[in-house]
Amino acid sequence: MSLDSWVLLTLTGDVEMASAPKLRQEVASLVAKGRYYLILDMTAVDFIDSTGLGVLVGALRRVRVHGGDLALVCPDFRLKNVFRSCDLDRIFALHDTVDEALGVGK
Amino acid sequence: MKVGLVELRVPPRLEFLQVIRAFVGAVALVSSDLTAQRASDLRLAVSEAASNGMKAQFRLGAKDEILICCNLDHRQVEVEVRDHGGGFDPKAIKAVPDIESPQRLHYESGLGIALMRRLADEVVIETTPEGTAVRLIMELDNFETEL
After folding, report:
1. ipTM value of the model?
2. Which CATH number belongs to the domain containing residue A96 in this structure?
3. Cross-chain Cβ contact A86/B111 below 8 Å
4. How many distinct structural domains can be found in chain B?
5. Consecutive 10-residue runs of chain B (147 residues): their mean pLDDT?
6. CB A95 within 8 A of CB A42
């Protein structure tokens, strides 16, 4: 699947209680427009908390309901460890690059 | 390892979560015996406790400051997060479904305390009708290899 089929969202800074609602709204808006294949590029994310993780779980549910998928680009080992700490690495594929994410997309 | 007690008091406003994390990160740097990964884990665990405290105070409309108290000694770093959010019943917290369960994707919240328990060596939660104190402890002799 090419990048044209996916919507690439680039996240920066902290994805946490203060900022996560905006991401939730953005994903809901894309899904409402029929965009069910999303790549969230978290390369420039410094921090994520449980609220941010919860928004990602909700985003995955929203696209899967429509047969879509969500790919995460998350090269930072500290962020990866946060996913592992919650076992969320078992439901999200964590990719090191956008190209890698596209390579395993449906 | 230097020994000391440092405190931070912040208003219950979300923009101060970043200040709390910066504070804990700076304090953790004082402990040369805490690896970067474990300092990062502590920062996240404290942020989770402070987020919960703020949410509890939002529900009550309580404007009291959230207290972050870091206690460094030769054996451990202990951070206490104290709020005035009216406390909670730990038994009332619902566990999220297993990660393999199809129901798991329906749970966007409920990870905070579990995450704290995974990240810190010890978590002590004392909750009363006045508020909650969460103590997060990182032992200094649990060395990990830097990645």
Report:
1. 0.86
2. 3.30.750.24
3. yes
4. 1
5. 87 96 92 86 97 96 97 92 93 80 83 92 96 95 50
6. no
3-state SS, chain B, equals: CCCEEEEEEECCCCCHHHHHHHHHHHHHHHCCCCCHHHHHHHHHHHHHHHHHHHHHHHHHCCCCCEEEEEEECCCEEEEEEECCCCCCCHHHCCCCCCCCCHHHHHCCCCCHHHHHHHHCCEEEEEECCCCEEEEEEEECCCCCCCC
**Cβ-defined contact of B44 to A49 (cutoff 8 Å):** yes
Number of domains in chain A: 1
Separation between Cα atoms, residue B82 and residue B8, nearest integer Å: 11
pLDDT in tens, A54-75: 999 999 999 999 999 999 999 9
| CATH code, B110 | 3.30.565.10
Residue B72 placed within a domain: yes
Q: How many CB pairs below 8 A link A and B?
A: 69
Spatial separation of the C-alpha atoms in residues A76 and A104, rounded to whole Å: 19
- The answer to whether residue B144 sits within a structural domain is no
Find the domain containing B55 and state its range: 4-139
The boundaries of the domain holding residue A99 are 3-103
- Residues in B touching A78 (Cβ below 8 Å): 37, 40
Distance, CA of B38 to CA of B70 (rounded, Å): 15
* Residue A105: C-alpha distances to residues A6, B10, B66, B104 (Å): 9, 44, 44, 22
Encoded tokens for B66: 């959230």
| B25 falls within a domain | yes
Question: Is B32 among the domain residues?
Answer: yes
Could you tell me the pTM of the whole model? 0.89
Please tell me the distance in Å from B75's CA to the nearest CA on chain A.
24
